[in-house]
Amino acid sequence: MSQYHDMNTTKGPVQEHDVIMRGRKLLDITGVKQVESFDNEEFLLETVMGFLAIRGQNLQMKNLDVDKGIVSLKGKVYDLVYLDEQHGEKAKGFFSKLFR
Fold this sequence. Notes:
By secondary structure, this protein is α+β, with helices and mostly antiparallel strands. The protein is built from two helices and six strands, in the order αββββββα. It has a six-stranded antiparallel β-sheet, with helices on one face.
């Protein structure tokens, strides 16, 4: 049992990734590595499971905890899109054009 624990500590903690939406108005997202870009209509987040694009209206960052990898947003959410990791460069290029 201690061997298993040692293996986990050498690799570092694996961060969980959850998206919790409340009434299409509030989003709590864990496992966020960094916020790539954002404005009141679009957010692009790098998560432990790839890039996540969030589109909506009157989007605002309610909370950001960099140490814990938690982002909370409020506003009207239209869609959430994950970018496939194997197409990461193409998708990132596409979304960087989108967020200009």
